[in-house]
Write a structure and sequence with these properties.
It is a single chain. This protein has 254 residues and is mainly alpha-helical. It has 9 helices and no strands. The chain has helices at 3-34, 36-42, 58-87, 93-134, 147-162, 164-176, 180-185, 187-201, 206-240. The relative contact order is 0.07.
């Protein structure tokens, strides 16, 4: 096969992979839209029995927004898997192994994120803010949450959690292939960068930026502590390692 035929073959393979990803996304969107009310019931906070809607088209577009959120999150896993299958034949063995491990780690991370962590965060935030919203008995005000506003906040939280894994991976790679003393010296710049990333992916308020920026800073400090302990551990191994005699150091006695 000449170079032109090989290029055509890879373009066809890329088109097939993109078609699989698009069809999977459409299938997920149709499925989530079919069971949209069940999905709303799943993400409904504990103790809340209804939402308020004030617009004629608000419910329809809210359902579209909900289906888009769910289908996009699950289609991201499909797209990453198809991309790995497309790149796998052209990778070396160690590159394919690293990519495969990174893909499996990402899938496990997002599965644990949306099955365990995401519901816990929703529960904590809802209990935190609903407590202050319902304490209006002295002036007789009633808290009636809107469905669209609730899903908008869920979408912002979902965007922050989705981008957390790439940020952690990039930070880990930078700390591996750079000098650790530089990260310790410019720690203040790292803090500013973390809050800048938080300001980019969250609403413009201090609480949201703190909720995203603080875990990034915590992970940054844990990485520095881990690498310092690892370097100390390697030094201890070198100290305790017995010195092997050179093969020419022995002298035979006559």
């Amino acid at each position: 096969m000449n170079r032109f035929q090989i290029s055509i073959y890879y373009l066809q393979e890329l088109n097939y992979r993109l078609a699989y990803a698009i069809l999977g996304t459409l299938f997920l969107f149709i499925t989530t839209y079919t069971y949209k009310q069940s999905l709303i019931f799943i993400i409904l906070p504990k103790g809340l029995s209804h939402f308020v809607s004030t617009g004629i088209t608000e419910i329809f577009f809210t359902y579209i927004q909900l289906s888009t959120i769910f289908s996009f999150n699950f289609s991201l896993c499909i797209t990453l898997t198809q991309l790995y299958l497309f790149l796998r034949p052209g990778l070396y063995t160690f590159e394919a192994k690293i990519t495969f491990n990174l893909l499996i780690t990402a899938l496990i991370f997002y599965i644990c994120l949306y099955i365990v962590i995401f519901p816990i965060i929703i529960k904590i935030l809802w209990e935190l803010f609903s407590t202050y919203s319902q304490n209006f008995t002295a002036i007789d005000l009633t808290f009636e949450p809107k469905l669209q506003n609730y899903l908008s906040h869920l979408q912002q939280l979902n965007k922050a959690l989705t981008l957390s894994f790439p940020c952690l991976v990039i930070l880990n790679i930078l700390q591996i292939y750079t000098n650790k003393q530089t990260w310790v010296k410019y720690r203040g710049i790292a803090y500013i960068t973390a809050f800048s990333i938080a300001a980019f992916i969250t609403p413009p308020d201090v609480l949201s930026q703190t909720l995203i920026g603080f875990p990034l800073i915590l992970f940054y400090e844990l990485q520095l502590k881990f690498w310092s302990l690892y370097e100390e551990y390697k030094k201890q191994l070198l100290i305790r390692q017995p010195i092997k005699p050179h093969k020419y150091s022995y002298r035979y006695k006559k």
